[in-house]
């Protein structure tokens, strides 16, 4: 099985590394899409991360990058976090991608809790 992980506006971090390593230890192939071309950046806060995200990529370009990656890699599982969940939602709603068997979308809320939606 192949997982596509689509990060949030913070991009790659310790949490994404741990998730990738866990999935790989279970025998999965893991592909990751982040807005900073694989660079790990250390933002001081969410506002700084969002400004960098909009400057470096933005929502539509992030979706287009995800669309191109899905066409190229044919993942069976898609996991998206925050801005990445928005991308994942749009990708799995595209019914031409019959090879995607499941998705997990993780969205933050203003009270600092999070809720997940799986399909």
How would you summarize this macromolecular structure in one to three sentences?
By secondary structure, this protein is of the alpha/beta class. It has helices at residues 14-25, 46-56, 59-73, 83-92; strands spanning 2-6, 29-33, 77-81, 102-108, 114-118.
Keywords, please?
119 residues; 40% helix; globular; alpha/beta
Structural notes for this entry:
- With 119 residues, this protein is of the alpha/beta class.
- It has a domain at 46-74.
- 40% of the residues lie in helices and 23% in strands.
- The chain contains 4 helices and 5 strands; from the N terminus they run E-H-E-H-H-E-H-E-E.
- The chain has a 5-stranded mixed β-sheet with strand order 2-1-3-4-5, with helices on both faces.
- Helix 3 crosses helix 4 (83-92).
- It is globular, with a radius of gyration of 14 Å.
- The model has no long low-confidence stretch (mean pLDDT 90).
